[in-house]
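Record pair follows.
FIRST:
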Amino acid sequence: MWLSWAFLRWVEPPEGAPPARWIGDPPVLRHIAILLVFWGALGIALREWPKRAQRIHYAWHLFYWFLPVVGVQWIVGWPLLSAYWLQVLVPTLAIGTYLCLADWIAIGKGIWFFDEKQITGWKIRGVMPWEEAAFFYLTSLLVAQTFLILLPAELR
């Protein structure tokens, strides 16, 4: 959070950056409803897939639970998030990379490991599962976006 706030202070905000939209506006509610219907239909249609292909468990749960939250954030905050895209991108990449490096070290030292039956098997440089890196970057993205959306306008 401090990195996001510091970066917001260091980089000039765009002229007339708009606020996030109110979640109760009819267009916002309509877009959220469409997202949730699609999300539910996808879950019902593919509910057996993770049971048949156990190696995709981590990726399936990661994207199935994270992406709708990112979608809702963009539905509500797209004017704000698009205006401050750099202030979201830099902390996301910096923190995501830091967490990946820390995880890489932990995996290399045997402190942390993964059930090979739960991951696809694709590993970054043969060490860290891509799902783990995706988790760290998605988590960092969620935190950076949430921080910006909830930050009072006078502090942006």
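SECOND:
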Amino acid sequence: MKNIVIDFHVHVFEFETLTTNVVDLISRAYPNRNEYDALSKKYANPHAFLELMEQNGVDYSVILAEISPLSTGIAKNETVEAFCRVSPRLIPFCSINPYLHPNMGEMLEDLCLNHGFKGLKLLPPYNYFYPNDKFLYPLPFVCCSRKTWYTCEFSYGLFNFC
């Protein structure tokens, strides 16, 4: 039996905005910004990304939207949806920011049922809320209320740019 490899934390390379702190972090990881921009442009193409997965023995990748304009930037749900449409090997996870999306339960239900999202990524430290805040209460009901269960990921990765 073949082991299945899932990369469960992949950011799209196409962000609508990036904060200055994230750009600074990226600049330290690459020889120069032009090299990062070229890499981003290449792997913003889902077919090129699938080739990269193939080269590295990855069967599936969970592709994450991120709506954190104050901490990191914005990679829209629509961008992730379009990217993942190319292959079932690309698994879309949406992002909901409680301060920008007042009807989170309805939005999550729409994204999962009508746009193909398989899960939700929440970023409490990046979006300045706690996982037990009352405004999050509708989300577990949406994640568990259908025949298909949806995953809800709480991401707590903290970097020096927050």
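COMMENT: The domain at 6-154 is CATH 3.20.20.140 (TIM Barrel).
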